[in-house]
């Protein structure tokens, strides 16, 4: 019989790739992780790990047991939820910055009135990080986005549900109103860092308009985008959600095709029906609809 705690360590190792990463994630020492994995090998009766240079990797048997471990953890979560009459444990959510600043506060206000028994904990994190950490059970629900033509990777054992669509517009200093995107070919741009979905999508829009953007400024924080544009140093493309309930301190213009990004939630398969997680998701949907109105 396998111990579920050790199966979780194997699952974490399959996801993170190193003993050190597993130890850091779970706040154990690397030696403790190694000892527990060695005990799991004894329980299994076959080699689960093998040397790979200075590191170790899963054997074929290790990969097979890691896949079973993922299902065992999912069944454990379902079993615990079926026995839970009230959401004793907190709902841990990961929210991308624009959602953390707008729809999450509104959703929490509604939940404090409707579900005072429910504890919600939020971490602001990029969608890429949140979606990965959902599979490791660090988060129970993730608020993420995907841009047109850039569908997010769907990790095994998770499911996505649309919250709503968020228009993306051209953003310029006050008083400017270009006739087309191509008219900005000689301007300085501010965009998110290389590798982000937003950056890839924005660059493609410029290329489709016939030019390579002069990306002079990079920032993850969209507030920095707004301030650079408002000060007249750059132009950019930003989603409507960033403005919240406040008027935009910049000029907005439509982009070709009036593009929108999809805002969605992701949960582990089977956990979406949990009382607490379902209540949080419902509150987020209502908060987004209120924002759009």
Give an account of the 3D structure.
By secondary structure, the protein is of the alpha/beta class. It folds into two domains: 4-83, Arc Repressor Mutant, subunit A (Orthogonal Bundle), CATH 1.10.10; 89-293, D-Maltodextrin-Binding Protein, domain 2, CATH 3.40.190.290. It is 43% helix and 22% strand. The strands form three sheets. Strands 3, 4, 5, 6, 9, 10 and 11 form a seven-stranded mixed sheet that branches. A hairpin with a 2-residue loop joins strand 1 and strand 2.
What are the defining features of this structure?
single chain; 293 residues; alpha/beta; Arc Repressor Mutant, subunit A; D-Maltodextrin-Binding Protein, domain 2; 2 domains; seven-stranded mixed sheet; two-stranded antiparallel sheet; 10 helices; globular
Looking at the structure, the CATH topology of the largest domain is D-Maltodextrin-Binding Protein, domain 2
Number of domains: 2
Q: List the secondary-structure elements in sequence, H or E.
A: HHHEEHEHHEHEEEHEHEEEH
Strand proportion, as a percent range, falls in 15-25%
Largest sheet: 7 strands, mixed
From the N-terminal CA to the C-terminal CA, the straight-line distance is 55 Å
How many helices? 10
- Helical content, roughly? 40-55%
Roughly how many Å is the radius of gyration?
23 Å
The total beta strand count reads 11
CATH class of the largest domain: Alpha Beta
Mean of all residue-level pLDDT scores: 91
Detail the poorly predicted runs: none
Would you identify the CATH architecture of the largest domain? 3-Layer(aba) Sandwich
* Structural class by helix and strand composition: alpha/beta
Shape: globular
